[in-house]
Amino acid sequence: MKYTHFDDIQPNHRTDFVMLYFAACRSLRELQAAIRRTNGGKLTCRQAWLLRRIQNKFMQMVARLKATQRNEAPAIPNAKYPTGIVIDLKSPQGNVFYLIGLANRLIKELGLSAEEIAEFKQEQYRATTYQANLALLRKWFGIVFIGNNEYNTKP
Question: What pTM does this model have?
Answer without folding.
Answer: 0.50
